[in-house]
Amino acid sequence: MDCDEFRTQGKVMIDYICQYLETLNQRRVIPNIEPNYLRPLLPDEAPVEPEDWDVIMEDIEKKIMPGITHWQHPRFHAYFPSGNSFPSILADMLSDAIGAMGFSWAASPACTELETIMLDWFGKAIGLPDQFLSNKEGSIGGGVIQGSASECVLVSMLAARAHMLVRLKKQYPMVEDGVLLSKLIAYCSKEAHSCVEKAAMICFVKLRILEPDEKNALRGKTLMMAMEEDETMGLIPFFVSTTLGTTSCASFDNLQEIGPVCQKFPGVWLHVDAAYAGNAFICPELKYLLKGVEYADSFNTNPNKFLLIAFDCSTMWVRDKLKLTKALVVNPLYLEHTHSKDLSIDFRHWGIPLSRRFRSLKLWFVFRRFGISGLQNYIRHHIKLAKKFEELVLKDTRFEVCNEVKLGLVCFRLKGTDQLNKQLLLNINESGRLHMVPAQVNEKYIIRFSVNDVNAKEADIDIAWQIIKEYAEDVLAQNIE
Ligand code: PLP
Prior knowledge:
By secondary structure, the protein is α/β, with parallel strands linked by helices. It folds into two domains: about 5-85, dopa decarboxylase, N-terminal domain (Up-down Bundle); about 100-355, Type I PLP-dependent aspartate aminotransferase-like (Major domain) (Aspartate Aminotransferase, domain 2). It is about 40% helix and about 10% strand. It contains 14 helices and eleven strands. The chain has helices at about 5-20, 55-65, 85-100, 110-125, 150-170, 175-180, 195-205, 220-230, 255-265, 305, 320-325, 360-395, 420-430, 460-475; strands at about 140-145, 185-190, 205-210, 235-245, 270-275, 300, 315-320, 400, 410-415, 435-440, 445-450. The longest helix is centred in the C-terminal third of the chain and has 36 residues, at about 360-395. It is globular and about 65 Å long. Pyridoxal-5'-phosphate binds near residues 148, 150, 247, 276 and 314.
């Protein structure tokens, strides 16, 4: 494909994308196919000879679209939003065209510098304390884009582990690293995302999963008791992962209590995972949810969830960048450059991969095209729609709401057994008209309704509620125990 063909086919692709997004509501939300549907539709081997672009494009509708779960569909209320917007799509196009690998400052200076500036813009906009921003006097912190929240948690845990092992090595120089490692223990709440458990598996450390309170918040006292108990058992607390906006029910751990507890244990690293909720702190009226963040060593949020940015873009800030990079620096000759280490950042030391896409471009385009006010309006609108849904549920005495609705997520269920609710959700999802996923909240099976669609309107909430009620009447009539 040369530039002329790309020009022509690029326009065709833009038309296809617009048509796809504008007519999404005419499709089923989830596909109606069985596993391995695709293999019989494709040849066994890659083609030896080049194919015409038109032929390739035809296969999109015929073979790929039937197997797509449409995350941008107005009836897609599962998980959390997969953020998207045209400025973000355009930025990814340009990033792909530039094709730079910004692993060091020298490898593409604008990639690194724009990333640093965007993380300062965004950190400031959501109200992070100055110590996380790289352009504040006296700050030794800063921000970086990782591929996912899971990566942010893992990288923080790796840094915390390295930091604690150095401390312990000074105290016990004759003890083997492996022995010290076997003593390290991390903490999170039962409501934390499973990526914390995965990070602990990778880091080869123990993880103690703690009970949250009745509002699904991890409390300081629970943490304190666990850490003290473990210390008496000869273990060494080194990492606490907290969540602002949990995956199941968007609850908030109590950072104001947890922070001072962590400070009682020298060298313990406090991480705050705000993958979904962190974006909402761009609204001044929601910044109260961030209270206690000043105790954190690291913080992450995913603009690719709740801020109109396409995957992948998970922003992470640390209070002390040296503590982070010490765990991750390797320096082969072929990656060295002559520019001052004090003035230039090499982001390869801030994460696991070497090569990195030019992801800050999409933050820059979106911040500029929407403005902070546009992004605030977007978040507020989604919260308003969630509140509307909550109101509809509360008005119907057959249902109950199971979380405190502060953002765009409503957890609800039919009053009755878990089995009844499982059947309700199964029937709705099988219909292909609406998609939601379940969770376990306060020992009950609940259904999560997340306001996701970028262009969601009040009418969409009414339609969703009508569909839910229709299937609820069906399952209630069946007298499921
Ligand atoms: N943390 C929280 C609170 C989440 O809700 C999620 C996903 O929804 C994750 C972490 C994992 O995110 P990622 O897919 O970016 O790894």
